[in-house]
Write a structure and sequence with these properties.
30% of the residues are buried. The protein is elongated, with a radius of gyration of 21 Å. It has two domains: 111 residues, Rossmann fold; 123 residues, 3-Layer(aba) Sandwich (Rossmann fold). Helix 1 packs parallel to helix 9 and helix 7 runs parallel beside helix 8. By secondary structure, it is α/β, with parallel strands linked by helices. The mean pLDDT is 93. It is built from nine helices and eleven strands.
């Protein structure tokens, strides 16, 4: 059975230039964007239960734009004024530039890596090792903080948002030939929404080794996997698979 309808468990791309649209045209497939998970922020009451006082910190570490949104939202809800002296350490330049939404961008207080990995950011953190760092994270974060510990950095993890299952409605059709996932949380949501799920001819594709492990741990068959030497992206892996079908 050829693949004709694909569910991509991500929000719909904002640009019409997305490779997914090109794949849909070239291979005559219907691609539906439907996240299996969604992010929701902790309430200020929930955040206070962590007994973390934001004004005590002099620097913040961000690994996602979502973390920035919820950090400033919580500060506003709790009526915390962030001093101009606060320093921000971001794992990529795009995350650093996103700070312009909330604060004046000054290079003397905003630092960023290039690879998205904490290791790339460590030289800046070590240079400012007298700061007291707040590390804004989600409830399912898997960030390795070994480098912070080994360099005796004073930091505290603060959970500011959570990942929850984006449940399917009773009238929502589930007639896909292929499902594509990008996180273990997506697989958990699939099994929560459809506890009697039987894969049968449905193909499953995923991005990342942790997601691949979650697919296999759930007793499912993995048909398409990225990244790989032949397919550095999920769209490349999908295109290779569809090409092999023709």
């Amino acid at each position: 059975m050829k693949v004709k309808k694909i569910l991509v468990s991500q929000p719909k791309p904002s640009s019409e230039k997305s490779p997914y649209y090109e794949i849909a045209r070239n291979y005559g497939v219907d691609i539906v964007f439907r996240p299996f998970i969604k992010v929701e922020g902790l309430t200020s009451k929930e955040f206070r239960q962590q007994k973390i006082s934001i004004p005590e910190f002099t620097a913040v570490i961000f690994t996602a734009r979502t973390a920035i949104d919820h950090f400033f939202r919580l500060c506003e809800e709790m009526r915390i004024t962030i001093p101009d002296t606060m320093k921000y350490f971001c794992t990529t330049e795009s995350i650093a530039l996103y700070l312009q939404k909330y604060t004046v961008y000054r290079k003397r207080k905003i630092f960023h890596g290039n690879t998205g990995k904490l290791a790339d950011l460590m030289p800046f953190i070590i240079k400012h090792n007298k700061e007291k760092f707040l590390y804004a994270v989600s409830d399912v974060h898997k960030d390795d903080t070994t480098l912070l510990d080994s360099n005796h950095i004073d930091y505290t993890k603060a959970i500011m948002y959570r990942t929850v299952s984006n449940d399917f409605g009773p009238d929502e059709k589930f007639d896909y030939d292929m499902l594509i996932f990008f996180s273990p949380s997506g697989i958990a949501s699939l099994m929560k929404n459809f506890p009697e799920f039987e894969q049968g001819d449905i193909r499953i594709g995923c991005f990342g080794s942790t997601t691949a492990k979650a697919v296999k741990d759930a007793g499912l068959r993995l048909d398409v996997e990225a990244p790989s030497p032949q397919a550095p992206s999920m769209t490349a892996a999908l295109e290779n698979y569809l090409k092999s079908e023709n």
